[in-house]
């Protein structure tokens, strides 16, 4: 099968790039894959993949100055069986134009916020809705994302869920943890990873930690990530007198991030929905699961698709430090529950390995091409 995929990046160190890299790499073992990327003087190379850097630079709004390049982009004539825009805005709009010119079926992926947010204002809603309704199929990582799309537009195309995936081999074997054990000799150790932005809800998690510290004076909460909320979180830590308990480490390498995932006792990350920004799935929950770490998360957005309540973690009420603190207390005090969730987490992560999830995409491709 000849496939044309569109993405804004193939950089495996960020979320969209990692998904592109992994899916394209798996597909290229069985299919002829052409990957369309934004123009770049030194485009990346992938084994068995033909990379065509012909797309305009990424934009977040049609009102941006570079949108002119985007709006005037002329789709080339390409031979293929199917076109797949891995992400919604903005490249699904170009994928629609490309599919129309070449009379090919189109699949669009909507990964969360940026599959929904453009539907809340014009002219983005007009262009994205037209692309969605021209597609043979849409896929989302969670039912929540799919329902949000249906809420904000009259969707006529079929839509289904295909969960996000990880490469479980990346988390094995367990790295040397001696340095971290020396640096943090006492615990329990909680870990959170993500951009320091409001919708990530790290302030909720920090307030929950504050409630546990009187009974757990050695408790540590380590947050890896950077963003515009850093100053606010630092002020919150100071106001709650948590300087010896909560640590903002900023950006760390992928290798170090995995080391911390293995080192921590459990993973704590409590997102919230905010101004149409939400967690579409939560890939980091699978990464924690691959390391056998139970999760405390919030029942927000697509998180329940990534964390199975009572099976791989506990889901607290969104925006509630008290509910989060109760979940933490329950998991830290119940060794049998902790052990069961840890075992289940590893099995859950294996179910979401790219070797399995990539086959779901291949099945979708086959069903679309055979129905023509």
Tags for this model:
six-stranded parallel β-sheet, globular, 41% helix, 2 domains, seven-stranded parallel β-sheet, Rossmann fold, 15 helices, 372 residues, 13 strands, alpha/beta
> Radius of gyration from the CA trace?
21 Å
The counted number of beta strands is 13
- Give the overall shape: globular
What is the second-level CATH architecture of the largest domain?
A: 3-Layer(aba) Sandwich
Name of the level-1 CATH class of the largest domain: Alpha Beta
Q: Briefly note the CATH topology name of the largest domain.
A: Rossmann fold
Task: Give the name of the CATH superfamily of the largest domain.
Answer: Glycogen Phosphorylase B
Instruction: Tally the helices.
Output: 15
Going by helix content, strand content and strand pairing, the class is alpha/beta
Report how far apart the termini are: 14 Å
Strand content: 15-25%
Helix content: 40-55%
Q: Can you list the strand order of the major beta sheet?
A: 3-2-1-4-5-6-7
Describe the structure.
With 372 residues, the chain is an alpha/beta fold. It folds into two domains: 2-165 and 353-370, Rossmann fold (3-Layer(aba) Sandwich), CATH 3.40.50.2000; 170-351, Rossmann fold (3-Layer(aba) Sandwich), CATH 3.40.50.2000. It contains 15 helices and 13 strands. It has helices at residues 15-27, 67-71, 91-102, 113-116, 124-134, 143-152, 178-183, 202-212, 230-239, 254-263, 283-290, 303-306, 321-333, 335-351, 354-370; strands at residues 2-6, 32-38, 49-55, 82-85, 106-109, 137-140, 159-161, 189-193, 220-224, 246-250, 266-269, 295-298, 313-316. The strands form two sheets. It has a seven-stranded parallel β-sheet with strand order 3-2-1-4-5-6-7, sandwiched between helices. The chain has a six-stranded parallel β-sheet with strand order 10-9-8-11-12-13, sandwiched between helices. The protein is globular and about 65 Å long.
